[in-house]
Amino acid sequence: MSHIVTTSYNLGMSFTSHIDSHTLQMESSVPGNDSPGAPSPKKLMLASLTGCTGVDIVSILEKMKVSFSDFTITAIADLSASHPQIYNRVKLEYRIKIDEAERPRMERAMKLSEEKYCGVMAMFKAFATIETHLEIVPQ
User: How many CB atoms lie within 10 A of CB 52?
Assistant: First the structure.
């Protein structure tokens, strides 16, 4: 199966990607423009990672019939010092409102996403160390 994305140049360092029936803006900061009007391509990679693992975990928890709410995933990534700058370490912080008794099932869902289901995670592992942290918020 092939995925097709077409990206068009706008102005400055701004681009628009056309993905299926959606459009996505991205822009890199340049000297004199420290506040771009859209996320950078690298940060969109992190959004893809958190979205991919999030979809997996929600699907797994629903199959396990685990009740939860207020689920967020934060990615904190370090860039290499030399060019091309790549993410060499990513910490994923999972925060979920769930019964503490469900911790083992949440940890199992995280592990399945990391090791089996999340294709974006598999791609990231080719160039970065991935660390995970789980915070349970009482319901």
Answer: 20
pTM of the full structure: 0.93
Cα separation values, 102 from 29, 73, 94, Å: 42, 18, 14
Residue in the block written with tokens 């199966």: 1
What is d(CA 58, CA 21) in angstroms, rounded to the nearest whole number?
24
Cis peptide before 39 (omega within 30 of 0): no
Q: How many CB atoms lie within 10 A of CB 10?
A: 13
| C-alpha–C-alpha distance, residues 75 and 85, integer Å | 17
Distance CA 26, CA 120 (A): 19
At 60-91, the pLDDT tens digits run 999 999 999 999 999 999 999 999 999 999 99
